[in-house]
Amino acid sequence: MNYQILKKNFEAHRFHTVYFKTKEEAAGYLKDTLTGEAIGFGGSMTAKEMKLDEVLGEKNEIFWHWLTPGDETRKKAAAASVYILSANGVAETGELVNIDGTGNRLSASLYGPKKVIYLIGNNKIAPDLTEAVKRARQVACTKNAARFGIKTPCVANPDNGCVDCNSPARICNALLILERPCNGMEVELLFIDEELGF
Ligand code: SF4
User: Fold this and answer.
1) pTM as predicted
2) 140 and which of 8, 88, 124, 194 could share a cystine (Cβ 3.0–4.6 Å)?
3) Residue 112: count of CB within 10 angstroms of its CB
4) 153 pocket-lining for ligand 1 (C-beta < 6 Å)
């Protein structure tokens, strides 16, 4: 992970950035900085690997549909003061890429919370936007589909990767490229120099 390039390009785009060597250091930072907040989570393997529900649950109120399934939890997460998610692809040139099936993660990351925090492992970084979108489709989405065990071509024939299917079970319904933080929102990127999530 070349943090100096990431910092330069993302901060030029008005994102705040912080670097951590390990997920434990990043989790400790969040524990120290977030107290008394309502915190919503998007579906994030990285947040799960960091055990953020335990780390942040002591001093904050947590809304995460992976802990309490259902749309009610997704709505509460979107109405929280802080929203935490990861990214499917991150362009070194300063853009974030995410793909959603339900859309709760994308919508909450754009409007509602006063602060949005992205957890970014070194496996998410791509040299430019084209490669970041490609990574999101071919790596993140296919792995997510496999995790759900759904009936899509990418699960049935993983060697073919994403074929931009029309399956009713398709989980890739919306693609978001975030070029700058939306107006009125603080967006912080935690770059963590480990392989995390999909
Ligand atoms: S579009 Fe279809 S084939 Fe491609 S990753 Fe999504 S579910 Fe799989």
Assistant:
1) 0.96
2) 88
3) 17
4) yes
Q: What is the pLDDT of residues 146-187, one digit of tens each?
A: 998 899 999 999 999 999 999 999 999 999 999 999 999 999
- Structure confidence by residue, pLDDT tens digits, 92-141: 999 999 999 999 999 999 999 999 999 999 999 999 999 999 999 999 99
Atom of ligand 1 nearest to the CA of 162: 4
**Tokens matching residue 81:** 């003061």
Q: How far apart are CA 152 and CA 172, in angstroms?
A: 11
**Test site for ligand 1: of 152, 157, 159, most ligand atoms within 8 A of the Cβ:** 152
CATH class of the structural domain 3-138+169-192:
alpha beta
Q: Residue 115 is encoded by which pair of tokens?
A: 């602060």
Close Cβ partners of 170 (under 8 Å, ≥ 6 residues apart): 101, 152
